[in-house]
Amino acid sequence: MTHLSYDETLREITTDAGVLRYHEAGLIDSGPPLLLLHGSGPGVTGWRNFRGVLGAFAEHFRCLILEFPGFGVSDDFGGHPMITALDAVVRFVDALELDTVDIIGNSMGGGVALNFAIAYPERVRRIVTIGGIGRNILTPAPSEGIRLLQEFTEEPTRDRLVRWLHSMVYDPATVTDELIEERWSHATDPQTLAGARRMYSREAFAQMMKALESSKGPQPWAAMHRVKAPTLITWGLDDRVSPLDMALIPMRTIPNAELHVFPNCGHWTMIEAKEAFESAVSAFLLRKDQLTQGTPPPSIGTP
């Protein structure tokens, strides 16, 4: 597997709203495009979310890791970073003249992937989500991980960052000194922190929930039946940020969805269950089309 470095894969494009930065690797001239969308949280970047699995997917795809505006790598487009993320995807796909893409979306990135697939169904072939979609059914909201994220965002300390990082994983050994340092350095950058506070301060979070409740349109989880692309929903069994019961609605309402749950794993399935994640996702993305919209299942006993 080829080693891929940060600097050699980094690219940027200029849009009317600002500069979008991204990483490109793999079969650049001949491979099908695979768009990788990161999640949110202190010190997050697309590179940090997906650098560990990039080499595996680069063997088969033209991999494109987009850095969303408002997270300290691409320009900040202003506004709520979760809302501007969808606009950034549209601008990015248009700028690279991509007719169709496969998408892997981590947490927030998975929600953005579903929204893009609903708005532009002809442009998405398959989707893989990593936790973070749906809604709590059996567990309280906000979850432990979200509460710790709010605490750090409002008053950043290294101890609060470490507590939040531990809520993201099943194995505490995943939270290394190197991980803490790179997250701390990026999360406390003034511009990055300002973007985080527009998402996760208690006031911002409450306003977002109020806006959703008062909206005349359907809730995000209530529109998932409009996703036409075959979708692989992946989840960590021990996710303390988006507990597993959140998967029930998307699993049941996305028409061509399948669910893969990784044991002994928290919110970062692509990191804690790296080899199993690579295997399951590669098999899903590379297999011949088997899930066809509207095709009824065979009857019991049919050979």
UniProtKB/TrEMBL annotation:
Organism domain of life: Bacteria
Every AB hydrolase-1 domain range: 32-273
GO terms for MF: hydrolase activity
Keywords, sorted A to Z: Hydrolase
InterPro entries attached to this UniProt entry: AB_hydrolase_1, AB_hydrolase_fold, AB_hydrolase_sf
Assigned GO CC terms: membrane
Protein name as it appears in the record: Alpha/beta hydrolase
Species of provenance: Mycobacterium cookii
Lineage start: Bacteria, Bacillati, Actinomycetota, Actinomycetes, Mycobacteriales
